[in-house]
Design brief:
The protein is mainly alpha-helical. The chain has one domain. The protein is built from 13 helices and two strands; from the N terminus they run ββααααααααααααα. The chain has a two-stranded antiparallel ribbon. Helix 3 packs across helix 4, helix 4 runs antiparallel to helix 9 and helix 8 runs antiparallel to helix 11. The longest helix is centred in the middle third of the chain and has 27 residues. About 35% of the residues are buried.
Length: about 280
Amino acid sequence: MTETIRTESKRPILEIKARKGWQLIDPKELFEYRDLFFFLVWRDIKVLYKQTVLGFLWAVIRPVFSMIIFSIVFGRLAKMPSDGAPYPVFAYTALIPWTYFSTALSGSTQSLISNVNMITKVYFPRLIIPMTPVLAGLVDFAISFGVLAVLLAWYRIMPTAAVIVLPLLIILMVLTAAGIGMWLSAMAILYRDVRHALQFLIQLLMYAAPVVWPVSLVPEQYRLLYGLYPMAGVIEGFRSALIGTPPIPWDLISMGSLSAILIAVSGAFYFRRTERIFADVA
């Protein structure tokens, strides 16, 4: 918390006080540091591809190779159902949001530890740090859509009218990554075990999400409960909008939206409560 005090010499003095208790996000303060926010996002984007041979192609290679492996293992060998869609399209359509989510979550969780020199030397809204990978990851997310366009053209699949729902699904996807990222980034700097368990957690979340299997396998009586996992509605919504199977899962999206909002709000409160001791324990 900052407070400007004017002295007799009319020179403003900036006083920084530690916050106590549960605090709300201060949008005004975040807006004042918008230039820093933009710089950090741009830095993350440039660093990701600096001195690389393939550059932005790395945004395509990961989901494409995952699609090939999933198509062979789950599509051909395990004969996993795909709701009537070609399995490569079925898998890749899910991998677009999932790859973004897992990358953003990983970067956000480790962001405070990676930027420990910043948070121990200068004041700025700490919330900027875990939010940076969440926004920077949208560049890779956009690039991966190019491959999907080629894939849809190859299989002669036209996106449905439900494609207008995509902005809502993207917001839900970003909100989920931001919410969990705030929780885990604050926990990771306090408890270093978190970063060691991160990859296991991401792998667990992937198999819990309908990436390699359809939500139609979930028993109807557990469908709403399963919808509390926000990425379930996001992934099924992407499939519905882009390849037309299944119909838009409004039940999953509704439950996932409520869950994502709860995760994001509680994550913001927890982050704000613990940020005053980041510099001490980093």
